[in-house]
Amino acid sequence: MTDTPSGDIAIIGMACLFPGADSPAGFWANICAAREMVGAPLPAWGAERYLNAEGPTHIPTARGGYLGESFAADPARLGVMPSSVDGSEPDQFLALRIAQAALADAGAAGPDHDPTRTGVILGHSTYLHRGNAAVVQHGVVLDQTRAILAQLLPDADPAVLDRVRAEMAAQLPPFNADIAPGLVPNVMTGRIANRLDLRGPNYLIDAACSSSLLSVQAAMIELRAGRSDLMLAGGVNASISAEVYMVFNQLGALSKTGHVRPFSEGGDGTLLGEGLGILALKRLDDAQAAGDRIYAVIKGVGQSSDGKGAGLLAPRLEGEMLAIERALLDAGIEAGKAPVPGLIEAHGTGIPLGDRTEISALHGVFGSRAATGLPGTAIGSVKSMIGHCIPAAGAAGLIKTALALYHRTLPPTLSETLRPGLGIEQTPLYLNTKTRPWIAATGTARRAAVNAFGFGGINAHAILEEAPAPKAATAAPTPTHWSHELVLLAAATPAALAQRCRELAAAAERHADAPLAAIAAWAAAQAKVGPCRLAVVAADRADLAAKLDKAAARLEGGQGRFRLRSGVMAGDTPLGGRLAFLFPGEGAQYQGMLSELLVAFPEARAWFDFWDGLFPDRDMPPSASVFPPPTTLQPELADTLAARLFGLELGSESVFVAGQALLAVMRRLGLSPDIVVGHSSGEHSALAAAGVFGGTGTEA
């Protein structure tokens, strides 16, 4: 037996298309906003036929995570002949589109990129889709139908039967030499290699739900062996037909409630999801040397089979544990000494047996809960929001987890009530149901993991870590989509400002696809100089439209200065005087304080990282009192954490840290006070803000 080559692999590019999102930034925004993107399919799917059917063709629900109108890909932009599209497997063209985007995101789309040492390996399963269904109908069903009609109606005119056959054929996608390549499964990666001139390996892996992680593992092996310098890997499941729902219904896997609720009471199964995600991978040393932006680092991937379990499709505890243990070995972590990750993206399908087995497997590897009773590992599943993308499920989980590490944020999972009997209270795990800042003591690398357990008994586990700090100082990453946006307008008079409100509302309505962030940026760029100013804090497009309408009405009525509690402020003259910052004392702290701010501004979160590492011998990190886990806490411990926040030790510390975090945000925005004032223990914050202690950050 020879040692397996090892080495850290950097994720330097990502692209995806999942329900409600056509980019990783949009995908991350939906996750952090806890948006459920599950819904009904397009009318062409023909849901009523199956919902109203009897026997094996009946399905209890047609709800799922569908791509909808974003399903389309422009053949001309992809360099594909339009005549080769209709009737082919649609996934192939979307995979090409997303592969191009992943290379561009990695900065590898220009002339400096070496295509001879770049390959593509994708996870994909060949289920029934529009293209191969049409081939069966062209080759069998048309002639079979005509023959049956001739038998049942022996006196029928052959010309009429021929016409029936021709009419049926006219309703099908074409089948010809142009279409044929698009029906060969492995042409998916071949097409990508052809159009992008990639001359490394290209092939598909079908391991059901584990396909994406195993494609990443294969790409890592290629990179570690030195045969390739850049690899594209991920999973594709861009089209789901009703017939696939029929199969999963026969397996007893579909949710009858129409929702996916992993680890939750009432969770009764899964729903399928369309989507695809591709990651650009590079050896970490090479990525650092090139100055690449690194989303996260993959430390290791492990795989296993269930062997002879309780059934062909039943999960097996020992098999899942073995995949996790092999991933730890691949990452160079000794058995029995595995550090518990701060986040685990679970397989979490919402099928009760699978959820229980997964919790037991994690318990078996990572042990029991700490003596304090405080859980330290957030678990979740993006399937609660987009459904189960089967071969692309692992890609969705990897992209979500890489972005969680990149933005130092613990993403939520949709759940109302934890399912009793999971045994999760005995583990280091808790189900994370809120978007929360991911606090880690300064100098401690955040670590995460992704599970993907495929039906048929193939299991995979990936271990990820946050990227090392770049050698050259760079601005910390800030999410491009926030929960709220600030929209600013200016004009010479209140009437002119009202007109600006109306114009912006009309422009936003004309550009219905523009995200709120783009509207805010456009408004700022178009803002005119003038003494009359308007500021609107909006949560979404509808909120912005309503607030602009209210503001315009007040301005048109002659009110030049007003403030609405909903987040609208107007002024008709610039404010005079100087700027003062007042820092409060103890009593101003509360659980959950600054949570959204810490998610949006890394400078603020860094102060809480600093706080957690200040006294490492504490039995529980102080941030646990500010951001306690939202589930699995015993009531006594929850009360203890809340009481500590207002105790002598953490009370003054929390106010000081929060004050400095807010000050860091003000500095990021370019706001500098002329005077600082502190109340009670807030005087320490004011002194620090004034530079009395030296420095302006945690290093002071």
UniProtKB/TrEMBL annotation:
UniProt-recorded Gene Ontology molecular function terms: 3-oxoacyl-[acyl-carrier-protein] synthase activity
Domain Ketosynthase family 3 (KS3): 6-466
Pfam families named in the record: Acyl_transf_1 (PF00698), KAsynt_C_assoc (PF16197), ketoacyl-synt (PF00109), Ketoacyl-synt_C (PF02801)
Keywords: Phosphopantetheine, Phosphoprotein, Transferase
Annotated GO biological process: fatty acid biosynthetic process
InterPro entries in UniProt: Ac_transferase_dom_sf, Acyl_transferase_dom, Acyl_Trfase/lysoPLipase, Ketoacyl_synth_AS, Ketoacyl_synth_C, Ketoacyl_synth_N, PKS-FAS_Synthase, PKS_assoc
SUPFAM superfamilies per record: FabD/lysophospholipase-like, Thiolase-like
CDD domains: PKS
PROSITE patterns: KS3_1, KS3_2
Identification of the protein by name: Ketosynthase family 3 (KS3) domain-containing protein
